[in-house]
Amino acid sequence: MKRLILFLALAVCLEFVHAQHYENNWESIDSRPIPGWFEDAKFGIFIHWGVYAVPAWAPADADIGVYAKYAEWYWWRINEDSEAGKLFREYHNKMYGEDFKYQDFAPRFKAQHWDPKAWAEIFKNAGARYVVLTSKHHEGFTLWPSEQSWNWNSVDIGPHRDICGDLSTAVKDAGLRMGFYYSLYEWYNPLYKNKLKKYVDEHMIPQMKDLILRYEPDIFWTDGEWDHPHENWKSTDFLAWLYNESPVKDRVCVNDRWGAKTRGKHGGFYTTEYDLVHEGTGGDMEKVWEECRGIGTSFGYNQVEDLDNYMSSDALIDLLVEKVAGGGNLLLDVGPTVDGRIPVIQQQRLADIGSWLKINEEAIYETRKWDGAKNNRMENVFFTQKHNKLYVHCTEFPKQPIVIRGIDASKISLLGYDGQIAFTSSDNEIKISIPELSPIDNPSEFAWVFRIE
What we know:
The chain has an eight-stranded parallel β-sheet. The chain has a five-stranded antiparallel β-sheet with strand order 11-12-13-18-15.
């Protein structure tokens, strides 16, 4: 009998091990569940920081489309034959001269006031649960001492610091999860332009594995995938290694940017960007997903953005509520200045989000999308759920009672408010009476959340 039990136990273990092995094809790769921590986290901080922080410019108010306002695309735009390219080029020639090369900006990227611990504290106080740093954008400049980017990285030139390493340590010490953005392609790398296979085998994949082995991130967030199909990038080969052999195989999360037409189809969590999937409109998705965007019109710091270009704290909190209620996460970007400071207006926005989350965090973290929302559509009202609790998010304070169909209630409260909330419950429908709040009793100046038990 003991031998039989031992044999069955061994068989179960072998089956478990077998179940955890992923082949280098999408059917197998896509079968891997997203680690639960990601869907619970809900709110992360994106950071775009590199040589592009030196010119730090894009035409924020021009009518040229969303993507053309990204300051981190400066090098590409000054060489581009387009309406946006003309604006970038005119600015560059006026400020630096026609003979000034983009590479000449690198020694000016000093980061002399950068304090990674201070950054981590700002992100933690904002209520973020994870951080994603651009380890390398499309310009190819790496924020770690990559052997494949000799003299075009933050240790050999500019800050002379391992930014990926120093920030990773600070973020993890603050109790947050750390991740890296990585651009698969590089605009002007001769190897990429002329010998793609060699670029992938000897440059890209070694860099990606180096980031994983060196820093053991919880998120690996790729981009720049659109030039080639996933086969050319050898994406499933890398992901099979990541899921089967890497030191983060059990906890790492990846996105869906692994080749032309993979967004919203393959990989880990799906991504939208300023509510777009490429040029198409994004929205609620059945799979775990994440919206990324800047507080303003750009990911990288743009020195000419003014107050009108920035979302208000109210709008950002509404955005967080909307994305979480839709089953997604929000990855909100900050663009630091060239000397390593997070602009004060961005800090202020993050502080306001953090203050709101201290009151309403139970309605955000570890929650899930409520299926009953589709039968209870109301303007400025969103829903999240957790266990036996339903949370009703009001992005404007209600003037009329709220009627919700399809549920019963034993108790209703307003998060952050000590007073009683009156309600009626009958025929699988509840009606919430709205209290009159004095300035002292009002728990928030932004969104309000009713908890239904």
